[in-house]
Amino acid sequence: MNKSLRPAIIAGNWKMNKLSMDTMSFFYDLKPLIKEAKCDVVVCVPFTDIATAAVASKGAKCKLGAQNCHFEPKGAFTGEVSVDMLRDAQVEYVIIGHSERRQYFAETDETVNKKLKAALAGGLIPILCVGESLEQRENGETLALLESQIKKAYEGIDAKDAKKIVVAYEPIWAIGTGKTATADEAEEAIAHIRGVLASLYGDTAQNISILYGGSMNAKNAAELVAKPNIDGGLIGGASLVVDDFVTIINAASAQN
Ligand SMILES: O=C(CO)COP(=O)(O)O
Questions:
Q1: Ligand 1: which of 16, 45, 235 to mutate, judged by most atoms within 8 Å of the beta carbon?
Q2: Is 176 a pocket residue for ligand 1 (Cβ < 6 Å)?
Q3: pLDDT > 70: percent of the chain
Q4: Which atom of ligand 1 is nearest to the CA of 178?
Q5: Which residues are catalytic?
Q6: Where are the domains of the chain?
Q7: Is the CB of 123 inside a 6 Å radius of any atom of ligand 1?
Q8: What does UniProt list as catalytic (predicted)?
Q9: How confident is the model over 150-206, as pLDDT tens digits?
Q10: What is the DSSP letter of 101?
């Protein structure tokens, strides 16, 4: 397992948090602390904070992400935001298929697939989220579910594009619960995801960054990112606090 074949990434997902003033001060504080970061840093902010974040993060060693996009390029889709709109706003990454969107906003494997294709065609880097519920884990369905989610998400996507997608394994039972998957559980699931990608794309799977997400924090990050298949993290709550986020970034940097 050669981790140097793929970038380590620490991505924050602010979810529905922070106003523009908070966004300004977050990047003001973050900027000097990540100058030496040896991993890619991404901050996925709410749509309404993107413009502020684009200004406030200028010159910082981090990229901006959004938390969703629509798959159509434009038209009568009230309340939606297109890939072009995000690019226009200086966004480079977009989270697709987060479990909260699957659970509360009717996101399906089919719309995830369409959004991945739209993001790739429009030049955004997708962060594709997959993961099982507690019930699915307890029923021993985790590995089969991950295989199904990955295969449906990548349907019709060639190896050249597959390589651009970042995957995040986020067990639903670990999100916002303070209950992290153990490093071994996360490694097992992520190694399985890489195996499924290898069955679809061969050696290209070695170039795909796969992150862990779910109550990852300043205390447990180092153990998780030390695992051979875990290439970084998608961080919710702990990404809202600069010091915690930087500790996680430093833990990932120490692996490189
Ligand atoms: O959903 C997550 C990131 O997308 C994880 O959230 P928490 O880190 O708050 O558990």
A1: 235
A2: yes
A3: 100
A4: 10
A5: 98, 170
A6: 59-241
A7: no
A8: 98, 170
A9: 999 999 999 999 999 999 999 999 998 888 889 999 999 999 999 999 999 999 999
A10: H
